[in-house]
Amino acid sequence: xxxxxxxxxxxxxxxxxxxxxxxxxxxxxxxxxxxxxxxxxxxxxxxxxxxxxxxxxxxxxxxxxxxxxxxxxxxxxxxxxxxxxxxxxxxxxxxxxxxxxxxxxxxxxxxxxxxxxxxxxxxxxxxxxxxxxxxxxxxxxxxxxxxxxxxxxxxxxxxxxxxxxxxxxxxxxxxxxxxxxxxxxxxxxxxxxxxxxxxxxxxxxxxxxxxxxxxxxxxxxxxxxxxxxxxxxxxxxxxxxxxxxxxxxxxxxxxxxxxxxxxxxxxxxxxxxxxxxxxxxxxxxxxxxxxxxxxxxxxxxxxxxxxxxxxxxxxxxxxxxxxxxxxxxxxxxxxxxxxxxxxxxxxxxxxxxxxxxxxxxxxxxxxxxxxxxxxxxxxxxxxxxxxxxxxxxxxxxxxx
Length: 400
Ligand code: TRP
Ligand code: SF4
Fold this sequence. Notes:
By secondary structure, this protein is mainly alpha-helical. The chain has three domains: 6-172 and 365-394, Rossmann fold (3-Layer(aba) Sandwich), CATH 3.40.50.620; 177-238, no CATH class; 277-363, Tyrosyl-Transfer RNA Synthetase. Helix content is 58%, strand content 6%. Strands 1-2-3 form a three-stranded parallel β-sheet. The structure holds tryptophan and iron/sulfur cluster. The site of tryptophan has 13 residues, from β1, α8 and β4. Iron/sulfur cluster binds next to α15, α16 and α17.
């Protein structure tokens, strides 16, 4: 139950581009081999800013899932699902909203920033203000301890930690907690109980975080504990009540340095992207049209790679030998820009080839994608239901 688990979500924004691949998806693909992973389409999140135009969300959702699969996200390794198909997210969001101070939401840095950035929209809505809390529900409902996100999302993870802490503080208390926790310690067996006590003391007196980690590992090993005792032992370590919701940590994804066609960061809003499955002719055309060092007016003028966006793409796609060839050839006017661009074109096409191939299978038979998502939703729902049972119980809502 407290095992390591990765969770991440993406808003359905339509076709993904190579910036998403290098910045996010490659990281997911690596993580899927290292941890149990849950990846989901945050379609309700799209509504927080696009409530006035929800029509495109469905298509964007399926296109994005195909892009994930094309990139190599493997449904036999990771669980893929759609947020709105797991309505428990909404229930947890509602319950958490009851105990979330408004000031916490207003202070989330993306709130004012985004409102100012998307000035043309009326974002003085309840849903927009609450969106970090919806994100907290997304994370906490799976008790995910690792959330890969970019730097801009780190405050949301921090916010989720505070919400989990507040929830545990409010609802993790039970009469006689201390005694029940001590009883649970005994059930660990004398050797483990001694180690548990030592680690707990080390954490509480010296704040030694590695002691907490070791204690968590120790509890993970123990098989024959009841669910309630387990929650008590986790909570007792940190001196709180039961730990019902797990505080997540951010797995910071290094900012992608994937350059776009103009040398700025690749981004839809700069109109400088190549999509993941863009057809070959279009890729070739776009790279051929790329601006180069503006000082290289004629073929005979020497150039400087440092001033050229094509060189930035060589850093992503070319081996050392090719890069040497570019440096030399450009500075001595030994090569022309068209020639210089060819290895970049080749590199992109080569990277895309397996993606195009994988995507084709799913485009030919969309029922495959539906089945993957149906299966993922089912798995996610099972985990979500389990957490909701504990949440309801701790809040005294388990009637019937
Ligand atoms: N808010 C994230 C974004 O805009 C998407 C998201 C929603 C998410 N829920 C999440 C990311 C949970 C990680 C975990 O990019
Ligand atoms: Fe850019 Fe290559 Fe032309 Fe030099 S030769 S300016 S690096 S495209």
